[in-house]
Amino acid sequence: MRGILVKGSLFFAIFILLLVSGNFANATPATQAGEYSSDDFAYESRCRQCHAIIYADWEGTMHFNAYLDPFYLEEVKIASEDTDGELDEFCSRCHTPIGVVSGEIPPIDGSEMSDIARLGVQCDFCHVVSGSNGTGNAPFTVSPGDTKWGPFNDSRDAYHKSEYLELYTQSEYCGMCHQVINPVNGLVIDDTYSTWKESQYAEENVVCQDCHMTEGITEFKANPGRASSSAPKRDHISSHDIVGANTLIPPMFGAENVAEMAVERLEKATTIELTAPEIASAGDEVTIDVAITNSGAGHKIPTGVSEIREIWLEVTATDANGESIYDAGSLDADGNIIDAKMLYNNVLGDTNGEETKSFWLAESILEDNRIAPKETVTEHHSFVLPENAVYPITVESTLKYRSAPQDMIDHLLGEETEVPVVDMNEMSAIIYDPSTPANERTQPEPESESTPGFGVVTAAMVLGFTMYVLKRK
């Protein structure tokens, strides 16, 4: 087996799970594989009869497509082969939780799965979570049946019984799946929850739901309404789109609106500041500094499977005739990033200390180049101004994001799938000839911090709404 080794480190993995747990004082035993039947869960079509708005929020999101996500299906197939099936239940516990608790996974190919198990992270699974055995690796307790749990302590019983559970108002609910620890060697491979826990957001009691389940982007904004057609009107009802930064997968299922929300979230995640000289002479070495601040995310950016996520800065300088003087971070014809100063992501190492993008083969973290909440990092760029450059010189800096490297998606999904690239933020400056009078030198207006950039999805494969509906069925 090429996969995970060091089984003697299982104790260490358990220690890490306890370390990041926020709720183990009130822990309940985690539901085990095969403990229930898929018949114990209700289809979302029943839920939508009373919760139509919430259902519309959720439809098309990454939770909705947690199992059908073609990237996940290809990755988990390779992981299963590499580890002789050791990770089948581990990965599936978050992507098809009903499939796991009903014992329909493994086999990993889904051949034994019921229709309801293919519905990903769906209504009746989330709202029969009745407790947790901590945080990380999906230690949820589920109690399928007529009682549904949620964040309100005054809900009326109607079609089903309603119970309040404080867990639904805490980051620890999200942290059950959004904290992933290698179950054998204890390596943390997704630290979304723990990087939030270590941030000032946690200190100020700003929880995941305040940003990801409100009408605001990267900040709380009340969403008045009713949780169901028969429920009382409230000052705030949680939005169930729960969008992150994935712009690649939703359009494949016709959910362009979800990708648009992801772009908006990415646009609001950072601020940047570009420093450049106002004048420079031919032959001068020009230094450009670009400061990037994670001003809007309550966790490191990027997060999730951060070994494949890519954030980088593109910096260009062109003269008045459009001639390129400097170019760092542009894409070539094959979608490769050329000469970027830094890729802001997590670099995992395998047993030989070589970089791997397959987290199931990872034994160490070689580098963590991500940007922590409220942290500022600065890139330094420099070039010599050519003798034949035509003034003024325009310097542009653009912070870019994409969900995965293009060559990786080419390999897994085919070359017809172009990975969307989002402009998270941008800023520019103009360098003048020293002979230009000061009153004729103008600089571009910086973007306001509340709208720190213009996002642009350069391309996405759209399979169409018909295919989307057929796949759900």
UniProtKB/TrEMBL annotation:
A Pfam family it matches: Cytochrome_C554
Cross-referenced SUPFAM superfamilies, in alphabetical order?
A: Multiheme cytochromes
Return the annotated region ranges for Disordered: 434-453
Q: Which domain of life is it from?
A: Archaea
Q: Which InterPro entries match?
A: Cyt_c-552/4 (IPR023155), Multihaem_cyt_sf (IPR036280)
> What positions does the domain Cytochrome c-552/4 occupy?
47-127
Q: What is this protein called?
A: Cytochrome c-552/4 domain-containing protein
Q: What is the lineage of its organism?
A: Archaea, Methanobacteriati, Methanobacteriota, Stenosarchaea group, Methanomicrobia
